[in-house]
Design a protein that fits this description.
mainly alpha, 24 helices
Length: 443
């Protein structure tokens, strides 16, 4: 008889590991050893669940049981004491099936572990349970005790949401958040329980519109991203399943978050490409929409092109006028766009995009921000022709050359050119001189 399917349902990974010893003893016909080890594991599992209730969920009943257990001087076995304390303070942990399994297991364990000292007995001094008895007790222990999820009492998801909400300042770093989730939650639970937590959290994020959820959207979304970063294969199908079942309930202002998710994990796109939310997303971010947002449009490139590089190239050739609008793109997003183009193996359109953003700046303040975030970090990747376009474009836009910082900023371009390409180029020298002369008048 194989117990692999049953043991995989055990939520505690340590208990699952211990059960392999029981199964090994059973497979090798060491039935007494299997029973004795199984008896130990069952009570270890109950104790571990009480510790989880105390340490993770601050459960008062579990805290009381463990405190009394550690201080007790009653002259009975530790296992018997633990069962009595649970029955007294936390009876729902031990239903009738659970109690019956514990009783049957205790009886078999006593027979296997204690010799029969009756000198009239001529057979074996230690009882040997049958194969069928051991198999039955293994099955009952798993089904009635080891996978009994309700022993965790408080809702795991609610505890998780409360914790990340209270600690969102401390968990703002992606690596810290992943480490926290893995250490405190995911390492303790089976794959099935982790999937259930992720599914519930995603549904709440997409479909719940209350004050508490709205205040914590960013940290919840970051937690969803962290789950996917830790094991995208385990959770990817859940995205399509939840979005399909909740298609009519997804809140409009959560739709862009779906786009953000697909930008980070494009592998998810094929599974949800037919979902109506993506059609809404496309309508909301298309260049023709009333409240066009360039940053969101670029994040949702997959709705318009095969790659971000292709999408940028199209925008640059067909819709240059959009760069003259006062669109603000966050620094972190610009970095992500750059890394995406690098991963696609075509950074040239990104370089042209950076230059267009700057030379079409509609205001002095826009030009300052765009020079800092689109020019300075990426000056080294610009080609000769792109730098010439940068200098020429800046010289044709007063918002670039008349601002207070213009001379200082544009001298930086001159120094970069001289260091990288030398100064013996009449064409570029004339263009730089023209730009610097215009920039000097900004003082």
């Amino acid at each position: 008889m194989s117990f692999e399917y049953q043991t995989n349902k055990i939520p505690n990974n340590q208990i699952k590991k211990y059960m392999k010893e029981v199964i090994s003893s059973y497979d090798n016909k060491n039935y007494r050893s299997a029973i004795i080890m199984l008896h130990t594991i069952v009570y270890t599992d109950l104790y571990a669940k009480l510790m989880d209730l105390r340490d993770i969920y601050k459960d008062e009943k579990a805290t009381k049981i463990l405190s009394e257990f550690s201080k007790s001087t009653i002259d009975i076995s530790k296992e018997h004491l633990l069962k009595d304390l649970i029955q007294k303070h936390y009876p729902k942990m031990l239903n009738n099936k659970c109690l019956a399994t514990l009783e049957n297991l205790r009886n078999q364990r006593n027979l296997c572990a204690h010799p029969d000292y009756d000198d009239s007995i001529t057979g074996e001094l230690l009882a040997s349970p049958s194969k069928e008895t051991v198999a039955s007790l293994i099955t009952d222990s798993i089904n009635n005790i080891l996978i009994y999820k309700e022993t965790l009492g408080k809702n795991i998801l609610i505890d998780l949401l409360n914790t990340i909400s209270n600690k969102k300042e401390l968990l703002s770093n992606e690596e810290q958040l992943k480490s926290f989730l893995q250490r405190v939650y995911l390492s303790r639970f089976s794959s099935d329980i982790s999937k259930n937590i992720f599914s519930q959290m995603l549904r709440i994020f997409l479909c719940t519109n209350d004050a508490e959820t709205n205040q914590n959207l960013d940290i919840i979304f970051s937690t969803i991203e962290a789950f996917l970063n830790l094991d995208i294969q385990n959770y990817s199908n859940i995205i399509s399943d939840v979005m399909s079942k909740q298609e009519k309930n997804i809140i409009n202002d959560r739709i862009q978050y779906i786009g953000n998710l697909l930008f980070e994990f494009p592998i998810l796109y094929n599974n949800i490409s037919n979902n109506s939310s993506l059609q809404k997303l496309k309508e909301n971010t298309d260049i023709s929409c009333e409240n066009f947002n360039l940053e969101n449009n670029l994040k949702n490139y997959f709705l318009f092109a095969n790659s971000l590089s292709d999408h940028l190239a199209t925008l640059l050739s067909e819709n240059k006028e959009i760069f003259a609008e006062s669109y603000s793109i966050e620094e972190n997003s610009i970095i992500k766009f750059y890394n995406k183009c690098i991963s696609e193996g075509n950074v040239h359109p990104f370089s042209n995009f950076c230059i267009s953003m700057y030379i079409h700046s509609p205001h002095f303040s826009d030009a300052d921000y765009r020079f800092d975030n689109f020019i300075i970090p990426y000056l080294n990747i610009f080609s000769k022709s792109q730098i010439i376009n940068l200098i020429t474009g800046a010289a044709n836009n007063a918002q670039c050359y008349m601002r207070f910082r213009a001379s200082k900023d544009h001298q930086m371009i001159e120094r970069h050119w001289n260091e990288k390409y030398g100064i013996n180029c009449d064409e570029i020298n004339i263009k730089i001189k023209n730009l610097l002369e215009k920039s000097s008048k900004s003082y």
